[in-house]
Amino acid sequence: MQQLTDILKIQDLKKRIIFVVVALAIFRLGSFIPIPGINVAALQALFAANTGTLLGFLDIFSGGALGRFSIFSMGVMPYINASIIMSLVQGAHVFPFLDRLAKEGGTGHKKIIQYTRIFTLFLAAFQSLGLTIALTKMSEGGGPTIVSNPTLTFYFITVLTLVTGTVFVMWLGEQMTERGIGNGISLIIFAGIVCEMPSAAMGMIKLIQIDEMSLLSGLLIVAAVLIIVAFTIWVETAQRKIPVQYAQRMVGRKMYGGASTFLPLKVDQSGVIAVIFAVSLLSVPYTITQFNPGAPWAQKIMAFMNHSSLIYQMCYVALIIFFCYFYNSVSINPKDLAENMKKWGGFIPGIRPGEQTASHIEWVMNRITLGGALFVSVIAVLPDYLRAKFNVPFYFGGTSLLIVVGVALDTIAQTEAHLIMRNYEGFYKNSKIKGRWFNVGS
Q1: Mean pLDDT of 159-178
Q2: pLDDT: is 91 or 116 the higher one?
Q3: How distant is the alpha carbon of residue 126 from its chain centre?
Q4: CA-to-CA distance for 373 and 375, rounded, in angstroms?
Q5: What's the pLDDT score for residue 160?
Q6: Cα angle at 331 between 330 and 336, to 5 degrees?
Q7: What does the radius of gyration of the chain's CA atoms come to, in whole angstroms?
Q8: How many CB atoms lie within 10 A of CB 163?
C-alpha cells in the first residue's frame, strides 16, 4: 500500500501510468468496433468451432478482436513480423547498408525503425488481404456465410481499415513505450489476453454447472495454473551469478578496486519475446494458405497448423529455442563484457582476462539459455495436453501465462526503478525485480 502512495507522489510516474491506462482503454474500445458487412453470428460460431487451432489462438492473442473482426483485428502481428525479419536480416548481414546504419548510433537506429514501419505497412496489407479472402470463403457447418456480398468495394474498404488499424496500434504501442511504463507492444498483447481471461473462466464454470466437467477437474486446472505461474516467476527472475574480482589500483593518491561482485546473467533473458516472435512467425503460413484454402497444399498446411499436430508442436518449440538464443546474441556481447571488465581491472577467478573470459561467459550463457528455452517451450505447449486430457475449452496457461507473467514482471521492474531512482522504497525491501529493457523493432 505504501508503494502505491509513493507512486501517486511522483507526478511523472503517475502521468506515465495514466497514459498507459488511457492508451489501453482506446485499444480495447477499438477491438469492439466491427468492420461493416460481416455476419457476426456466423463469425463467432466459426471461432467457437476452432478453439484448438491456430485461428482460435490468434483470436486470444488479439484480445478477441479477430473473433469480432474489428478494426484492430490484425493487432501488432504485422509489426512484430516486420521486426523479426529486420532483425534476422541485420544478424545475417544480408544488406550492408543496414550494417552501416546500425553502426551510426541513434541516427542509424531511427532510420532502421522507419524501414521497419514501412515494411510493416506492406506485411499488414498482405495479411489483411489474406484474412479478408479467407472470411469470404468460410462458413461453419454449412450455415450462413460470414460475408454475404464480397464485392470489390468490400475488399478495398476492409483491407484499408485493417491496415489503418494496424498502423494506429503500432503508433499507440510506440507512444506507450516512450511516454508510459513498460514496453507498449507487449502491454497491448498483455491487455488483450488479460481481458479475455474472465470470460474464459466463466466458460469453465458453466461447464462445471452443466456437468460437462467435474469439480475435481476444475480444481486441478486451477492448481495447475497456480503452479505454472509460480514456476514461471521463479524462472523469469532466476539468475546465474558469475563471480568477478576487481584488483586494487592507484588513481592519484587514492586506492580503488579490491571489491568482489558478480555478473548476473538471466536464465531466460528473452522472456516473452521469444514466445511472441514464434507465434508471429507461425501465423505467416496460415495467412498464405488463405489465398487458396481449397488447394491440396493449403489443406496440408492447415492440418499442420492444428495445435494437436506433432509437426506444429515441434516447429513451435524449435522457434522458441531459436529466438531465445537469437535474442541473447543480439542483447549480450561476451567480448564487450570481457573487454569492459578487463578495462576496469576486473577478472573472473581462475579465468584469464580477455579472450578466455569472453569464452567462459559465452559458455555459461549457452548452458543457462538452453535450460530457460526448454522450460519456456514446455510451458508453451502444456495447454494442448491439458485440453486433450481435461477438455479445457480455452488457453488457460502456457503461452498466455508466459506473456502475462513476463510483461507484468517487466512493468513492475520499470515502476520500481522509477521509485528507487527518486529515493522511494521499491516493491520489495531487500531485492529488486530484474526487468527486460527491450523494445520490439529495435
Answers
A1: 92
A2: 116
A3: 22
A4: 5
A5: 93
A6: 95
A7: 24
A8: 22
pLDDT tens digits, one per residue of 265-301: 888 887 777 887 888 788 778 777 767 767 788 777 7
pLDDT in tens, 25-72: 999 998 888 888 887 777 777 776 665 566 666 776 677 788 788 888
Chain segment 344-391, per-residue pLDDT in tens: 778 888 888 888 888 988 899 889 988 888 888 888 887 666 666 655
Task: Please state which of the four CATH numbers 1.10.3210.10, 1.10.3370.10, 3.10.105.10, 1.10.3720.10 is assigned to the domain occupying 2-421.
Answer: 1.10.3370.10
Q: CA angle at residue 359 from 357 to 365, to 5 degrees?
A: 105
Q: Helix, strand or coil for residue 395?
A: coil
From its phi and psi, is residue 338 left (phi > 0), alpha (psi between -120 and 50) or beta? alpha
Domain ranges of the chain: 2-421
DSSP assignment of 197-260, as one string?
Answer: HHHHHHHHHHHHHTTSS-HHHHHHHHHHHHHHHHHHHHHHH-EEEEEEEE--EEETTEEE---E
Q: What is the DSSP letter of 75?
A: T
Pairwise CA distance, residues 424 & 427, whole Å: 10
Q: Is 268 helix (H, G, I), strand (E, B) or coil?
A: coil
